[in-house]
């Protein structure tokens, strides 16, 4: 019989990791100028990996860890779980609905509506992983995750793309894009394909599962140092496996390829293990306050950023938006336009920190 996980105190490392991830997400989503961006602060065009490509999977990994912490006590309680399932479903629907609201901003044109996005994927991954956590063992979760990655890989490299007559892994010309073209309603982000499409959602769920497995590890009877070591060493092994899988199935965020899942989950595990060792074991907490504050209302701050962006990126003053004015001023002063664009993005992150700080100080925690 599987040992039931026990209680664990709140981890500052996880809160800080969540908050800094959201801050990074805002920074790369809102550069000062879309035209001038350092390559690592942009998503890869297709195959490859940048800093920006790491952000979404790291957050889904954190979602998985959080699920393990939030629902571990329920595993030792017998009886119906109907109320818990209801709460999980309602929370997922709220996150998805907020994602739809952001997709409609600012014009609310229903004829040009996109049904996918970052929050949509978070909602789906949370829903599936939470239900899995309550009904399966960690071994079953691991087997399911590995099976999904293998089946996804085989499907994309063995099944010819309909209409093409051959296997293709090109932008807009692959099995995942074809499925979206046939069955995904509404507008697609890239015209004829979507990076948060139907098939790629399955391996993204595995990213959440890797976080749940890490959370299970945290809840065992291992010592803190042993847990940290296991997180970092297993992360290195998983990332290395993804690197070698890349030889036959390229690391690709747009496809959320199986190799991408392993490389990014491995990185997330190493990062989590490192932060856990430094912050929670060694007690070194200097500099983590911004992350903890952002992390306390992570999704709320992410939503707020889209709303504040209307003023800082959309509304025009004298014929230009604030970001255009700022980047132009810094560029004319002799600064690299890419650096000017990044500085404005960091400035916008700081703007979002103000309401996050106010909410945190007033102990207001908005849980979608």
UniProtKB/TrEMBL annotation:
Keyword Acyltransferase: yes
Keyword DNA damage: no
Membrane spanning stretches: 12-30, 50-72, 84-106, 118-135, 142-159, 198-218, 230-249, 255-279, 291-313, 339-360
Keywords: Acyltransferase, Membrane, Transferase, Transmembrane, Transmembrane helix
UniProt-recorded Gene Ontology molecular function terms: acyltransferase activity
Database matches in InterPro entries: HGSNAT_cat
Signal peptide: none
Heparan-alpha-glucosaminide N-acetyltransferase catalytic domain mapped to chain residues: 10-155
Pfam family, one: HGSNAT_cat
Stored PANTHER family: LD22376P
Descriptive protein name: Acyltransferase
Native source organism of the sequence: Dyadobacter arcticus
